[in-house]
Design brief:
With 110 residues, the protein is mostly helical. It contains two helices and two strands. The protein has a two-stranded antiparallel ribbon with strand order 1-2.
């Protein structure tokens, strides 16, 4: 029996419970968005590392087979099959000479 409780207390408890429910949903949504954003950034970082490894492998392969470093990034794409997402990454490729390793920089486009 609820001899000492009043109707006002019961209604007040229900209002508080509904208020807490409405506050929990946005918090859960925000946490979900933060985790999703973090996973997306981690994927881009992995893709960048993979592209870096592929570029280095192709540059060294070209030097070992042909005796000189690739003259351009297009040469690597055409002769060694390098493919990457041009909309996500910008690859700055500067050949210095035929027997000096080129300067390569990979930048993630925002």
């Amino acid at each position: 029996m609820h001899r000492f409780s009043t109707k006002e207390t019961k209604h007040g408890d229900k209002k508080n419970r509904f208020g807490v429910r409405y506050l929990i949903l946005p918090v859960i949504l925000i946490v979900f968005l933060i985790i999703t954003n973090s996973l997306g950034k981690n994927t881009i970082d992995r893709q960048k590392d993979s592209l870096w490894q592929a570029l280095n492998r192709d540059i060294m392969h070209c030097y070992a087979i042909e005796g000189y470093y690739p003259p351009s990034l297009a040469y690597i794409e055409e002769h060694y099959g390098l493919t990457y997402d041009h909309e996500t990454f910008f690859v700055d490729y500067h050949p210095i000479g035929t027997n000096i390793r080129p300067d390569v920089t990979i930048i993630v486009k925002e």
